[in-house]
Amino acid sequence: MTDLPLKGLKVADFCWVWTGPTTTRVLADYGATVVKIESKARLDTWRIQPPFKDNIPGPNRGGVFNTINTSKYSVTINISKPKGKELAKRFIKWADIVTENFAGGSMKEMGLGYDVCKEINPGVIMLSSSMMGQSGPWSILPGYGDLLSAISGVTEISGWPDRPPSEIGYYTDFVAPRFNALTLLTAIDYKRRTGKGQYLDIAQHQGGLQYVLPQILDYEVNQRVPIRDGNRDNYASPHGLFRCKGDNRYIALSVNNNEEWLALGRVAGNPPWANDPKYATFENRKANEDELERDILTWTATQDDKDLMFKLQKAGIGAGYLPSPADFLENDEHLKARKFYVELDHPEIGKIHAPRQPALLSETPAETRRAPLIGEHNEEIFKGILGMTDDEIAELVIEEIIY
Amino acid sequence: MAEKNEGMLSPYRILDLTDEKALLCGKLMGDLGADVLKIEKPGGDDTRRIGPFYHDENDPNKSLFWWAMNTSKRGITLDIEKLSGQEILKKLVKKTDFLLESFPVGYMDKLGLGYQDLKKINPALIMVSITPFGQTGPYKNFKGPDMVEWAMGAGTYLQTMGDIDRVPVRISQGFQCYYHAGTEGVVGALIALYSRHSTGRGQQVDISIQECMNFTTPWLYDLNKISQVRGITLFSVKVKHIWPCQDGYVMWSYTGGPNAKRHSIPLVNWMASEGMASDWLKNFDWMNFSHYHTIQEIIDRLEAETIAFFKTKTKAQIMEGAVKYRIMLYAIVTAKDVRESPQLAARDFWIEIEHPELGKKITYPGKWSNNTLNPPQISRRAPLIGEHNREVYEKELGFSKAELGNLRKAGVI
After folding, report:
1. Is the pLDDT assigned to residue B282 strictly greater than 60?
2. Which of A28, B6, B133, B145 has its CA 20 to 30 A from that of A84?
């Protein structure tokens, strides 16, 4: 067994809620020592938000928390108290990287901003991940991923052309951690070569915009504002999701050229629509797309989604079923073969799954270990990293500094 | 080379053989300062045919998709299906840190350019392979258009997107799934780089686009066997989340309890300051308001007053008011609004890039991170077809003009 690739990298992690912890999970799964600094005085949101195992609330029972905090250590420090702050500073001194995602400016207000961190630890790399960044008129706005998707231009192009934009959930929350992680890793490499640490002020907003670049350029040079277009596509038709046999079963379909169109007709057993001249070319299919989609649906609605996927892929057509959660976690042979979901044994809630890191490294793959209970590693870390004695720890516990 | 800014990844050379599935990967690394060489087939990549186009001119050098995905790269043409092309690629690989590719699984192996072949030439090479379903497993040869990746990767999440009376809906206009994979490719590449510093050896990074799209699967189902679908809420009332305003839409929800301080209370204050809140609304008990315990009649009354107010406001005014009153209220913006955003101007987001072939500068969306040292920055526009052939083949690889002419005649470059 080779060592994990980021072994030896030290992270003082003040992150909470979603984007921050998802970012530091990447480092932890690849072997960095990530010490999650949290507190019962202000519990991580995902320690108090459902879903909980068996719907019984408890700080160690949350589904989201236990998925996005794998492989980390947990210590509890009440950093709102002066002595807590001092204790936190000892981790900042120890760390290669300090991470936080409080609302813009909060870390500074707490007296733990980059200027302070740099004084304690001149070579430190500090990541502040926020919605709008640490500067600018909107930096004071709190937000969640749904709102950030709205302000980053993604929501506007989601949904049906005859309706207002659609709900697309907390979308940019899934974009931001990737930009956080890659920027941190770049700064780590830069520091290794130059010795220089730095401050990374990353805005979820600016990361989200990297996923609509052609649309922004289209406005810039053509003054065109791109629109939402349902599941349709400018280069493929038919294109979309079509209902199949059963509840909430669909086939995703993208027919990119006439060859694929003919193949589709063959798989469907050459029904009348397959040979109708009004669908014979891409232009014709786009011109009659409403009708085309209704015709395709009469066929797919009688089909089993997954069987259909195999038949269509075999015929050279890009098609896929929409797995149910049980399919994802238990049934799908491909995800199983790739060991994508890792089973974790949690002392309080039993067996749960977490997806492994999607970047699969041939020599040094990541390893997913279960998320920590709150304060689980207090003794181990305060002694092992800070060299504290039992008495010192006991005293801070009584004072509710270690809390 | 000289014009390239010092960036955080400046020492590294990248060969980019990807198509639309992974172009973003090299773009991001190029913006971070790496020397990225985009390798296209002679005549240019098919990706150049993806629109929209500059002034709607259907020209492979004017695809805005191409422009957006290939900033900070240089470009050469090379036919790697020809033997002499393969020899040239191997020469380049010797001095390369990363090779990015998104060919069908097994294609590079068939050409004798698979990871096992290339690592013999350069054991330190990091090869990032970005494919629809990864390098292994029963679906490895499946096609993976964006719609299919949404379903098979983000299916649990997709079930919650859109309206209950229609099928789930993806984000329009292209390639969200590919963007996720491209970004993840950078993460994988840099972890392999970190590892290489201690081992001296490179490795292959296998990115499955499907796996990059896993957003939310295990939680609800794993814990309580719940499958979420769009339009179903835990509330007994029907509430609006997306509201019309004067020139578009805004995203807003009334919230009670302690959170009302940054939601409902400041919005009502703003409405009241313009004489648009009734006494009923001004005296509303937000501390005891909850969507779980209210009735539809209350919600309808709240919404009627609020719609009337939002209809008097443009998106820009909404954002100004949100900042002034510190309300968690956001506009649903278009590309135009993005371009006009005061926040992005203040963050120094936009960057003017020279397009010498057009004789003008064009403003591009820029950095995702405001680093104190060497933030990501676009160093040049996307390459024209074969723009850097001479620079690379003559200056770097030492081919003579005659040799270059022969390669061109043979259709290798």
Report:
1. yes
2. A28
- Same domain? A65 vs A173: yes
- Nearest chain A residue to B154 by CA: give it: A322
Task: Give the whole-angstrom CA distance, residue B47 versus residue B52.
Answer: 12
Give me the residues paired with residue A284 across strands: none
User: Rounded to 10 degrees, what is the CA torsion of A51, A330, B157, B260?
Assistant: 0
DSSP-based three-state secondary structure for A345: strand
* CB contact at 8 A, A267 and A261: no
Q: DSSP H helical segments within B104-241, as ranges?
A: 107-110, 115-121, 146-158, 176-199, 209-212, 218-224
Helical packing angle, B315-325 and B264-273, nearest 10° = 110
Which residues 6+ apart lie within 8 Å of B321 measured at CB? B270, B313, B327, B329
Q: Do A252 and B151 touch (CB under 8 A)?
A: yes
Contacts with B199 from chain A: Cβ below 8 Å: 363
pTM: 0.97
Kindly state whether residue A220 falls inside one of the protein's structural domains: no
Could you state, in order of their start, the residue ranges of all structural domains in chain B? 13-215+351-409, 242-339
- Does position A182 have pLDDT exceeding 80, yes or no? yes
Residue B374 contacts by C-beta under 8 Å, 6 or more apart in sequence? A190, B5, B6, B7, B8, B33
Neighbouring CB atoms inside 10 A of A16's CB total 23
B171, A340: Cβ pair inside 8 Å? Answer: no
Shared domain for A162 and A206, answered yes or no, is yes
Q: What is the CATH class of B242-339?
A: alpha beta
pLDDT value of residue B3: 44
The answer on pLDDT for B400 being more than 90 is: yes
Predicted confidence (pLDDT) per residue in A257-297, tens digit: 999 999 999 999 999 999 999 999 999 999 999 999 999 99
For position A195, what pLDDT does the model report?
Answer: 95
Q: Strand B204-208 to strand B242-245: parallel, antiparallel, or no bridges (unpaired)?
A: unpaired
Domain CATH number, residue A37: 3.40.50.10540
**Of A96-105, A204-213, B188-197, B274-283, the least confident:** A96-105
The verdict on A205 and A257 lying in the same domain is no
Place of tokens 């090299």: B26
The answer for residues whose C-beta is within 8 angstroms of residue A256's C-beta and 6 or more apart is A235, A236, A318, B145
The interface pTM score, or ipTM, of the predicted complex is 0.98
B232, closest residue in chain A (CA to CA): A167
Domain assignment present for residue A233? The answer is no
Taking the C-alpha atoms of residue B194 and residue B209, their distance in angstroms, rounded to an integer, is: 23
B5 pLDDT band, cuts 50/70/90, is low
> Is residue A78 predicted with pLDDT exceeding 50?
yes
pLDDT value at position B4? 47
Strands A341-346 and A350-355: antiparallel
Burial tier of A58 (Cβ tally within 10 Å: 0-12, 13-18, 19+): middle
Cα gap B367→A364, rounded to integer Å: 30
CB B113 within 8 A of CB B86: yes
Nearest to B382 by CA among B349, B413, B412, B356: B356
Q: What's the gap in Å between the CA of B203 and the closest CA on chain A?
A: 6
pLDDT at A346: 96
